[in-house]
Design a protein that fits this description.
Elements lengths: L4 E3 L6 H11 L5 E7 L1 H4 L12 H22 L3 E9 L2 E8 L18 E2 L2
Parallel strand pairs: 1-2, 3-5
Antiparallel strand pairs: 2-4, 3-4
Length: 119
Amino acid sequence: MARNRTVLEVDTGALGEYYDWLKAASNGDVLVYWQGDLQYDRQVVIPESDVLRTADRQRINMLNVIADRIMRDAKAGELSLTQFRIGESIYEYRATRRRQSYPGQSKVSETPHDNLVLA
């Protein structure tokens, strides 16, 4: 059975789109929520005084909101998180919908690379 794959555009409406996907997704559906190096990309700081990069700053802020929300939902057992290596330090970050969780089952790895899937 083929699963649905959705790519989330991280922009001002991304959080609402994420919630819509989470509500409608079936078990096994995949959301690609970022491509790049998430750990590095989340730490980029663009000064408030750099008005020419306001859109970039807002995108990074939204990335942090989305990544934090997805991690909370994964820890609650709603999602399984994986990474697919595209290239050198470039990954596709995926959240797979889980509709069932079982008592005593580990929700998500606490170490950043345990869920890494190498191509």
